[in-house]
């Protein structure tokens, strides 16, 4: 909607141009007898409208080396390099590097996006063409993947609009229909050419109808009738009515009337109608015949031929569907369209709305007539904060010829606020004066609400992350064999609290590896390389050197996050300070070592046994060999070793005392005789 001043902030509006280019493509492809003659012109209009670097029309070719792509047509923007005849594109084999393209195209699916998001094996060929973003749609001809049409953007990571993609999709459908139609027309022309030479056997039914008093009688029909309808020629010669019995009921009256008129007036017969095949299917036929006069000037017979045009009819049906989709896109787009005409004075901000589409009632709840009758009503519905901001920067102006593109709020009839994106362009008279403003308005409430939800979620996530007693980080995936320069996308502020380095320093190449303790660096890098190649979770405990020289132990764990197609997106990781635990474990090990040394050097045998009345020892000190002559291993692993060597006179009493001690958990202290390895009791 336009009133006072428009600011030149947004990129030039392409929607009108794309729709016009699609309409141009439909017209040229429908009217041209050969799509090859207009292909470059059609691609050029689409490329200029969509503001892309190149538009390619690629055709598939089967070769000994596999399925290859050939440039059927190409349009390049000024400054963009052509790849006609260049093996980078023209003659490139689809597989194996572009197997994904083949599978998606054969399934009728498009390839859209920024090159950096594509699988690694696809990127070299695309980068060599300087492509940054692309959008390609398959072209299907008679149910078979014929090739594709696509946009190349060599300048920017393109967020393709719905209009760009629907325009390209429609162009693909139109080209597919035109190619199919051309195929059918070529077949038909070939058949007609062969028919002119009677001596040649044509792939059509030829017949002769003899004119008699009782009516026409079929005197001859070629054997091809059986191929066409499944009945032998004799069936038609024997029954004059059989031909008409096979004609579709909806076509019979028209066909019989044309045949009667041709016979009565000596006119040529030329009709298309349906006939029932022996298997019940309906076959479209093109039936033409011409009168052949006798010597007295009367009609002797009709010489005719009939061909199967079912394929052409199907192609025409598909073309009609494509045309209908195009009309639906142009005439019923999901947006409000309007026309503003400038005026000298009156209410509002300098323009009068002369047309607004019915979609306005779906968006705002008011009928179109309300806006046409009251020039100021539109502005009454704009949110006061947004209207003031728009006026402050002179966003509405009947004198500003630059495109208008603004997002603001309008009040719905039920009182709630609707976010709209309002875009319009200026249409000029021949003398350069403003004729009117052509605009489109879209309801973007859901998008704005989604953006707000994302913003709130991001703030909530950041608050959680930055208040967690651990370091969280995100690292971009690196290919196997990467060097020490890592790609840290994010690290939480806790890193500075724990190590003294600002978070910004961690984005510097190689910083992470420089602060790892030298004794741990090799093991840490080896595990990093392994997990980068395998995609398995990364789990390591290692030391880092803080800014003040302290050594800090970390438990570092990260997992690779993938998209729905299995492509690697980011490593999400957490680092927890485990210095206290590691120091405690070190002190415990030292204490255990001191205890072990004490036990090993005591002038007595120290042992540990279970309390389940089993006489076997769990541990016995090495001094046992000095005292008794038995090794510690013999003592531990030989069943009943201790009991068997207690003196027989002491054995039962000692066994009972041992069991009672285990049950009562009382200390065991007893004197008894025990046999040494040399047989002596001590």
Spell out the blueprint of helices and strands:
Blueprint (H helix, E strand, L loop, with lengths): L14 H17 L7 H12 L3 E10 L2 E11 L22 H8 L4 E4 L8 H5 L5 E9 L2 E10 L8 H34 L9 E8 L2 E7 L2 H6 L3 H6 L3 H4 L3 H17 L3 E8 L5 E12 L5 E10 L1 H22 L4 E7 L8 E6 L2 H6 L3 H6 L3 H4 L3 H9 L11 E8 L5 E12 L5 E10 L1 H22 L4 E5 L12 E4 L2 H6 L11 H4 L3 H17 L3 E8 L5 E12 L5 E10 L1 H22 L6 E3 L7 E4 L2 H6 L3 H6 L3 H4 L3 H17 L18
Antiparallel strand pairs: 1-2, 1-5, 3-4, 4-5, 6-7, 6-10, 8-9, 9-10, 11-12, 11-15, 13-14, 14-15, 16-17, 16-20, 18-19, 19-20, 21-22
Helix pairs in contact: 1-2, 1-5, 1-10, 5-10
In short:
The chain has 682 residues and is an alpha+beta fold.
Explained architecture:
The structure is a single chain. This protein is of the alpha+beta class and 682 residues long. It has 5 domains: 159 residues, GAF domain (Beta-Lactamase), CATH 3.30.450.40; 112 residues, PAS domain (Beta-Lactamase); 113 residues, 2-Layer Sandwich (Beta-Lactamase), CATH 3.30.450.20; 116 residues, 2-Layer Sandwich (Beta-Lactamase); 81 residues, PAS domain (Beta-Lactamase, 2-Layer Sandwich), CATH 3.30.450. Helices cover 38% and strands 26% of the residues. It contains 23 helices and 22 strands. A 5-stranded antiparallel β-sheet has the order 2-1-5-4-3, sandwiched between helices. A hairpin with a 5-residue loop joins strand 13 and strand 14.
């Amino acid at each position: 909607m336009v009133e006072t001043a428009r600011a030149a902030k947004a990129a030039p509006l392409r929607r009108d141009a794309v729709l016009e280019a699609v309409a141009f493509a439909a017209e040229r492809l429908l009217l041209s007898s050969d799509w090859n003659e207009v292909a470059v012109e059609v691609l050029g209009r689409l490329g200029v409208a969509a503001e892309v670097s190149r538009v390619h029309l690629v055709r598939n070719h089967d070769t000994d080396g596999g399925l290859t792509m050939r440039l059927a047509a190409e349009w390049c923007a000024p400054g963009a390099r052509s790849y006609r005849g260049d093996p980078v594109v023209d003659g490139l084999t689809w597989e194996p590097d572009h197997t994904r393209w083949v599978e998606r195209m054969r399934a009728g699916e498009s390839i859209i996006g920024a090159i950096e998001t594509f699988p690694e094996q696809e990127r070299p060929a695309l980068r060599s063409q300087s492509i940054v973003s692309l959008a390609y749609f398959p072209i299907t001809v008679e149910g078979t993947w014929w090739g594709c049409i696509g946009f190349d953007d060599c300048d920017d990571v393109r967020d393709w609009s719905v209009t760009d993609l629907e325009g390209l999709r429609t162009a693909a459908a139109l080209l597919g229909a035109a190619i199919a139609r051309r195929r059918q027309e070529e077949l038909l022309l070939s058949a007609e050419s062969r028919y002119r030479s009677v001596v040649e056997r044509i792939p059509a039914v030829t017949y002769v109808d003899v004119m008699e008093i009782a009516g026409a009688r079929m005197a001859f029909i070629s054997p091809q009738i059986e191929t066409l309808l499944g009945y032998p020629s004799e069936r038609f010669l024997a029954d004059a009515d059989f031909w008409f019995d096979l004609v579709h009921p909806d076509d019979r009256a028209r066909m019989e009337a044309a045949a009667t008129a041709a016979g009565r007036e000596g006119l040529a017969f030329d009709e298309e109608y349906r006939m029932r095949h022996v298997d019940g299917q309906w076959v479209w036929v093109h039936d033409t015949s011409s009168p052949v006069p006798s010597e007295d000037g009367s009609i002797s017979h009709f010489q005719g031929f009939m061909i199967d045009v079912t394929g052409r009819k199907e192609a025409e049906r598909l073309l009609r569907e494509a045309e209908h989709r195009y009309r639906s896109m142009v005439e019923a787009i999901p947006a409000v369209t309007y026309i503003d005409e400038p005026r000298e004075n009156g209410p509002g901000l300098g323009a009068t709305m002369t047309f607004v589409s019915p979609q306005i009632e779906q968006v705002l709840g008011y009928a179109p007539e309300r806006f046409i009758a009251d020039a100021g009503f539109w502005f009454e519905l704009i949110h006061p904060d947004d209207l003031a901001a728009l006026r402050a920067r002179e966003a509405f102006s009947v004198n500003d010829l630059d495109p208008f593109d603004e997002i603001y709020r309008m009040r719905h009839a039920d009182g709630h606020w609707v976010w709209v994106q309002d875009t319009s362009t200026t249409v000029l008279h021949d003398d350069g004066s403003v004729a009117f403003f052509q605009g489109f308005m879209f309801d973007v409430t859901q998008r704005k609400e989604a953006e707000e939800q994302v913003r709130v979620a991001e703030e909530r996530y950041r608050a959680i992350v930055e208040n967690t007693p651990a370091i969280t980080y995100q690292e971009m995936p690196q290919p196997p064999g990467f060097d020490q320069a890592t790609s840290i996308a994010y690290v939480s502020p806790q890193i500075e609290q724990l190590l003294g380095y600002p978070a910004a320093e961690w984005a510097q190449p190689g910083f992470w590896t420089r602060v790892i303790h030298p004794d741990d660096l090799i093991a840490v890098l080896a595990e990093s390389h392994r997990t980068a190649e395998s995609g398995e979770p990364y789990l390591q405990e290692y030391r880092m050197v803080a800014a003040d020289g302290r050594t800090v132990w970390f438990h570092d764990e990260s997992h690779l996050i993938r998209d729905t197609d299995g492509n690697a997106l980011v490593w999400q990781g957490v680092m927890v300070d485990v210095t206290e635990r590691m120091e405690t474990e070190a002190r415990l090990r030292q204490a255990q070592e001191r205890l072990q040394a004490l036990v090993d050097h005591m002038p007595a045998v120290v042992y540990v046994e279970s309390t389940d009345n089993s006489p076997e020892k769990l541990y016995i000190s090495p001094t046992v060999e000095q005292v008794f002559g038995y090794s510690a291993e013999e003592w531990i692993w030989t069943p009943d070793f201790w009991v068997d060597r207690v003196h027989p006179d002491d054995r039962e009493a000692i066994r009972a005392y041992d069991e009672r001690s285990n049950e009562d958990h009382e200390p065991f202290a007893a004197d008894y005789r025990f046999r040494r390895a040399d047989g002596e009791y001590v």
